[in-house]
Structures are given as C-alpha cells and as structure tokens.
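In keeping with the milestone schedule agreed at the kick-off meeting, the structural modelling team has produced records for the first pair of proteins. Each record is given below as a sequence line and a structure-token line. The laboratory manager (R.T.) confirmed that both were archived under the project's standard naming scheme.
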Amino acid sequence: MEFADKNILLVGASSGIGLATAHLLHGLKANLFTASRHESPELAELGTTFLPLDVTQPLAATAFDSLPDTLHGVVYCPGSIRLRPFERIAPADFRQDFELNVLGAVQVMQAVVKRLKKANGASIVLFSTVAAETGMSFHTSVATVKAAVEGLTRALAAEYAGANIRVNCIAPSLTDTPLAATLLNTPEKAEASAKRHPLQRVGQPQDMAYMTSFLLSDHSSFITGQVLPVDGGMGRLK
C-alpha cells in the first residue's frame, strides 16, 4: 500500500490500536498528524506532527490550524470499555461514554470535512465493537454508544459519497491494549478470553492497524458504509 504524499490525521494515537496504526502508517511513508490529550514517549519517537486534543471538550476553532489544506484520511480511535451490570450504570456514565465515542468523532469530522473534500478521494475510519451487534452481558453502555457510531458511519457514508469520501467502521472483539488491561491481566483471564474466540486468541493492536491501513488505502476505493468485524469469528461463529 502506498501512502507517500498522503496526509492522514490519527486521533487517539498515544497507545493501543492508535499507536499500532501510527507505527504502520509511519512505515508506509504517510504524512502523519496525530492528536490526543498527551503525546506518549512511543508516539514521540515516530516524529509525527502532534496536536494536543481532548475530544471530550468543545473543539477550539484553532485546534486543527496546523493541518494541511488537504486531508486524505482520518482515523478516530478513542473509545471506552465500561463493563458493569446495567443497574449499576448511571445516566452520567452513558453520557460520558457517548461524548467520548460519538460526539468526539462528530466534532472532529465536522472540523476537517472541508479538507477531506479537497482530496478527491478520502477515507474516514471509525471504531465500533463486536458487542454492538452480538448481545453480551454487562456491555450495555459500550454496545449502545458503539451502535451509534455504526449509525454515524452509514449516514456519513451516504451523505459524502458524492464528494468521494468513504466512511467505514471496524468492529473489534477484545483486543490486547492498555484499555483492556484489567480483562487480560492474569494467565487465567487471558486464556478464558482466547477460548471465547473461534480462532482461539484475542485481537492484537496490529490486527486492527492492518485493517485500518487497508481502509485508508486506494485498495479499498470501492468500499464505503461498511461495519467490518475484526473479531476472530466471535460475532458470527460458534
């Protein structure tokens, strides 16, 4: 895949899937712009153009002034895993997850869509979860907000198809990232999680990074409005 001379904005790149994607795109020679609350040491080593950004706060008018006039791709990685019984999830918790997963993506897309239109062929990649389509106990909040992300994906894909902006969504299962650390922090937990997948392992950040780079690339130029499971078969197989 060729990314030379392509400008890519990666939101939430300091760790996990975002960091793995940053490493991959950097190796593919993309002009990479990364945005998150803090620039992690691992991200700083890549030498990307870093923009401080807290997506849970109103976006400043100047937040993306340092971006080039044309963007070829945007990836929105911030997410949450709030696993609790439904009766223990307060409305404020739902609201917080919605602000991070949905409204954060909305305000980023609204701020950069004019730059995407100038590319004459751009791609947006969002993230859902296998739990949005496959019912899972204790996943009420994350399943609800990620289902909204899937709706956002399809609506934006329809609205901007005429501008040649593709919008797709990746739906992972449990992935070995810092966000999921408490779910995989013992050999017993890791083994149990692996066995729940038909492929007998949990996802790795690189699995998601490879799919992300494909969806950003010209190789996926006829794909839009899709929610693509990268879940080891969990959502479809028994």
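The second protein of the pair:
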Amino acid sequence: MAPIRVRYIVDDVDATIAFYTQHLDFIVKAHPAPSFAVLQRGDLNLLVNAKNGQGGAAQAMPDGRKPEPGGWNRIQIEVDDLGGFVETLRKAGLRFRNDIVTGFGGKQILLDDPSGNPIELFEPASKTTTIQKTTKRRN
C-alpha cells in the first residue's frame, strides 16, 4: 500500500514534532526547513507546515482566506486500551476536546495537538461485542 499523506497547518513545527514523537509514537522522517516537517507512523505521513511558512501550503487563497490550524478533520489512531492511554496523556498535561464516547463501532476521544489540530484516539469494539449487538438487533 502506498503511504497515506495528511497535511496539518500548525503554529509551531518544533512543538508539533515533540508532541507527536513523545506521545503518539511518530518518527521524524524529514525536517528540511524550520517551517516544515514530515512525521511518520506506519503508513501515515503527517506533513506539518507552519501557518506562516514559505511553502505553498500556508499561502493565502485568492479570496484572502489563509490556512490555519484546528478544524474538525482529523487523523485516527487505533489503540488497544483507550481508557489507560487517555489517563497517561492527561497526566502528561495534554488537552482533550471531549470525554470518551462509546458508539456501535467502539470508543473514541478527540485529543488536540499543540496547534489545536484534532487526533481521534479510537478503540474498536471487540468482534464478540459487535456480533452480540448485531444479534440482539435482529431479535
């Protein structure tokens, strides 16, 4: 499978690198300029650009709008024990947008990176739980 690339506009590239490498097991694949880096986790390449950087990603649109951090689009990172992982991250002082939400497919929570870009931490429902729920709905 080809690598997946997602671009995030950030306030501070160095703070973003520290956040993703220290807390979410990313590695620095490239950091060719102070305002740009490529972080990698498995097949995911996270391209981070400073909102005031030299490259094309941070340039104003013809109507004057400028790319900025935040929003609601997000990457999803699957974890085995969401509750335990969230507790560890909270102890490290990290910010969450919400509390753990449980749905049909599993549990999730939204973690903000230093620039306010969301990361969805997701623990899938076990296959047994999913099968039981499906069976109950049919009856």
